[in-house]
Task: structure prediction
Amino acid sequence: MNSQEKVLNCYNQVADDYAAERWDEISKTHFDRWLLKEFAALNKDKGPCADFGCGPGQTTRFLYDNGIKDITGIDLSPAMISAARRLSPEIKFETGDLLNIAYSPGHFESALAFYSIVHFTNDQIRKCFGEINRVLKTGGDFLFSFHAGDEIVHFDKAHDKEVDIDLYFFKTDDIIALLYKTGFNIIEAIERRPYEDAKFPSRRAYIWAGKK
Result:
């Protein structure tokens, strides 16, 4: 199990390298672009949006450029938030914990969390989904992605830095069950094959949910 300290240590160490590597990744993933554009088109005029686990802000920036101006990127790592603010100074970024979101109930109209649950256990995911449901307005959209499967990959190095962190894969049906238990409906649930030139070639899952 990943402690919060392990996750923080990993991403605080690699933030600048991670930002340099991932900043333009959406330009190489046509399915992600299509899905994020659709999400932006449906939510750009509705009110506040949160990008949870935003890292250096590449998805936050993409949604902002596609019309969601009232967006806040939120990440556990202060170093990631510093990188995001440097890369997109016109967008609001702040540190925050997905297991204890510092916003009042119903604050956000929509939420995104691309690969933000990949270091959580199932129990932590259930708590995370409960928190996101709490801060969403009724009917609010929640779009997120993860690595599909049933394995755990351990990393002791990342960008030549020493780390100690596990990456979890999840079965899509198990994640859907957790969403139902935490007050969501499923709008779409899709898996895609790995891109052949991907740095980390895994099957990816995308779920678009709505708060009941």
Q: What stands out?
A: The mean pLDDT is 93.
